[in-house]
Amino acid sequence: SSSRAFTLLEPAKTAIKAAVGAPSFEDSADQLHKSLVAAGCRWKSGAGNTDLIITKEDSTEQDETIALAFRVVLEELVVNSNNNVTGGGAIQDSKVVALLDLSLHAAHLGWIPKQLPFMCVHELFEGQTARRCGDAFAYLEQRVNKLKDLLDDTKGDSKFVQAALLRCCNTLMQRLSKSTDLLLCGRVLMFLSHVLPLSEKSGVNLKGEFNKGNVTEYEEELHGEEADRMTAEGTTEKTFKLRSTDEKLDGQMEVSFHLYKTFWGLQRHLHDPSHILTAPPAAAATA
Q1: Which DSSP letter does residue 105 get?
Q2: Which of 154, 171, 218, 277 lies most in the core, judged by the most C-beta atoms within 10 Å?
Q3: Helix 144-153 / helix 182-195 crossing angle, nearest 10 deg
């Protein structure tokens, strides 16, 4: 009933706050379990009072109450961390990391909805500046295998877990600049490609639509100083090396001009795959 959920909320918050302050993860997980059981939590299987019968309705209400307690405590920790001007963001707070780890542990055991860890990370991102989100995202990268196991272990809840993950990452991507935060954007996409199956609809072009107007412009022939240097060195396009124009690299990085043309030439087929079917046989074979 709703009264039981209200009665359980405060003990659950107290248990979580005490658990995140434990000296080790094993201690915090064990302490959280004992405190939740003492507060009256019970589960049909796994840890808890397995001899007690709990209805599906009560089980759902209990899981959601514990999940709410996690989110409330996380919000308090994030606010306290952000108020600490000398800190490096909430993810630098050991208690925040401990809470995220506990939510992942509880989700694996079925104490809380399996999408809660991603919801907690999403709320962590919401409480951070875009610059600090890079450090917070490292949490997901460091626990990618555990998160992938959580996605793979789900049955009927799979769509809800994947939706929570996509919402978390897509909301972060919308906040990032495509120019100044390009590296973090790439990290997010690489992470999603690793944890989600190839059949995931968000990564499949279901309608087969392509942006044919997205044409990549690149140098197909050498001109100016580069052409003169190739002539002076007596090399060919296959052996001639282009020097990086990036000031940070100071011209120290070189790449084959043939590789440069081949790599960027692929974009002609990637932005419009049907081009392969309509191109002359020689051009298609070259691609």
Answers
A1: H
A2: 154
A3: 40
